[in-house]
From TrEMBL:
UniProt EC number: 1.17.7.3
Pfam family, one: GcpE_C
EC primary class: oxidoreductase
Protein name as it appears in the record: 4-hydroxy-3-methylbut-2-en-1-yl diphosphate synthase (flavodoxin)
Organism of provenance: Corynebacterium lemuris
Reactions it catalyzes: (2E)-4-hydroxy-3-methylbut-2-enyl diphosphate + oxidized [flavodoxin] + H2O + 2 H(+) = 2-C-methyl-D-erythritol 2,4-cyclic diphosphate + reduced [flavodoxin]
IspG TIM-barrel domain span: 23-264
Cofactor or coenzyme needed: [4Fe-4S] cluster
Length: 388
């Protein structure tokens, strides 16, 4: 948690594992992408894009959960026809995701989308259309994402690499397409080289990062259901972000896209790449626990969900590590004998029976937020600035 400073000075930036890799900068609508900007979190709608109301409704939910940029699929003409209204009414920048049909690239640009994602591996005669695409995107002032994917790699490259979507193959495909855009004077490009295997994905991005200065959009593609996808994305993004690689991220889950945003946001918070909000420190419980730690931790987490205020709350099962962790947190409980010692800023303020621990922690959290809210919120804003 940021420390309150009474002199009106911004809080120091929290430590990060590595400085960001320097990239060229570009704008996706009003969101800056590149090393001078915070890492943004993206997701993709799961509605039929031509169902404009449903799509805008889901975009609103994603926006409320903290999504910075949203991508929408455009498989049919009716979807392309819906893009102007969606792009106009969406509160966050909309990227049109184009596969197979080059004509939809131009529809998306004309529709006012903030960027277009193209998959050079499956767009018909893509290389021959690059000049037109570069001109249209350049005239509209929007960037292009070259989105290479292990599952739909350009056949020529796949043949060269004996049918295997190796890291080298993914990188070669992406840089080849980027070079075609550059030949036509277009450099507003970001790149993704997604693979469903996190190890291959990490290696591909590492190689790509060494060979270019394009901003990189990280993703483990087809990562799986919520549990597995969260783990795969977290380890892969962690490996790359810890080396300063990555400018936007998308966690792909077979789940509600709002979950993707929550996971992505938490990954960035965990690495100090976004200001931390609510952080629950809870012990795993063991044979020494004298209260139901799982229940307590779940109830406290649920009771404080959505809190924007940076607050570290410790929920500990006994007196072995309990007092230490509870003291280090802004707020905490060290339990024992069916009771809980409540700590606020390192001091025991009261001892309550187990049945009142959750309610007391929630009340104290709200009281701290109310008392220090303004100062801490200002501190949070300062952190956002310095972590850019
Ligand atoms: S705090 Fe106590 S109950 Fe929790 S894991 Fe540590 S020793 Fe076990």
């Amino acid at each position: 948690m940021s420390t309150s400073i009474g002199l009106g000075l911004p809080a120091s930036p929290p430590p990060v594992l590595a400085p960001r890799r320097k990239t060229r900068q570009l704008m996706v609508g009003n969101v800056g992408v590149g090393s001078d900007h915070p890492i943004s979190v993206q997701s993709m709608t799961t509605t039929k894009t031509h169902d404009i109301n449903a799509t805008l409704q889901q975009i609103a939910q994603l926006t409320a959960s903290g999504c910075d940029i949203v991508r929408v699929a455009c498989p049919k003409t009716i979807d392309a026809e819906a893009l102007p209204i969606i792009a106009k009414k969406s509160p966050i920048p909309v990227i049109a995701d184009i596969h197979f049909q080059p004509k939809y690239i131009f529809s998306a640009i004309d529709a006012g989308c903030a960027a277009v994602r193209v998959n050079p591996g499956n767009i018909k005669e893509f290389d021959g259309r690059v000049k037109e695409v570069a001109k249209a995107a350049g005239d509209a002032g929007i960037p292009i994402r070259i989105g290479v994917n292990g599952g739909s790699l350009d056949k020529r490259i796949l043949d060269k690499y004996h049918g295997k979507a190796t890291p080298e193959a993914l990188v070669e495909s992406a840089l080849w397409e980027a070079s075609l855009f550059e030949e036509h004077g277009f450099g507003d490009i970001k790149i993704s080289v997604k693979h469903s295997d996190p190890v291959l994905m990490v290696e591909a991005y590492r190689q790509l990062a060494e060979q270019c200065d394009y901003p990189l959009h990280l993703g483990v593609t087809e990562a799986g259901p919520k549990f597995m996808g969260t783990i795969k994305s977290s380890v892969a993004f962690g490996a790359l972000l810890s080396q300063g690689i990555g400018d936007t991220i998308r966690v792909s889950l077979s789940a509600d896209p709002v979950e993707e945003i929550k996971v992505g946001d938490q990954i960035l918070q965990s690495m100090n790449l976004r200001p931390r909000k609510l952080e629950i420190v809870s012990c795993p419980s063991c044979g020494r626990a004298q209260v139901d730690v799982y229940k307590l931790a779940e109830e406290v987490t649920a009771g404080l969900e959505g809190m924007e205020f940076p607050l570290r709350v410790a929920v500990m099962g006994c007196v072995v590590n309990g007092p230490g962790e509870a003291r280090d947190a802004d707020l905490g409980v060290a339990s024992g004998n069916g009771k809980g010692q409540i700590f606020v800023k390192g001091e025991v303020i009261k001892t309550v029976p187990e049945s009142q621990i959750v309610q007391t922690l929630i009340e104290e959290a709200l009281r701290i937020a109310e008392e220090q809210g303004l100062e801490e919120i200002e501190g949070t804003k300062a952190e956002v600035k310095v972590t850019q």
